[in-house]
Amino acid sequence: MKASRTIAATVEKTWYLYLIECRGGAYYAGIARNVEARYQAHANGTGARYTRANPPLRLLASKAYPDHSAAARAEWELKRLPKRKKLVYFM
């Protein structure tokens, strides 16, 4: 029973870095616990201000991190890369 609680606790703490392609070809990066729900928020116009003005076309990639801090650092690093290197970051 202890192992299942550990796995559940790990899943609950997991954060994801994601990359979205927006109308006009621009990329938008963010972090979330539930990437699908966050993408739907962007698509419905209730996400970030940027994606309200530049609606998302598709989710390009996502990557799991053990906690919010690690995901936020990864987002910071990703946002400093040139566009051509952003998808490579997820491989």
Automatic annotation (TrEMBL):
The keyword Nuclease applies. Keywords: Endonuclease, Hydrolase, Nuclease. InterPro entries: GIY-YIG_endonuc, GIY-YIG_endonuc_sf, UPF0213_domain. Gene3D superfamilies: GIY-YIG endonuclease. Transmembrane segments: none annotated. Residues 13-88 form the GIY-YIG domain. Belongs to the UPF0213 family. This is Putative endonuclease.
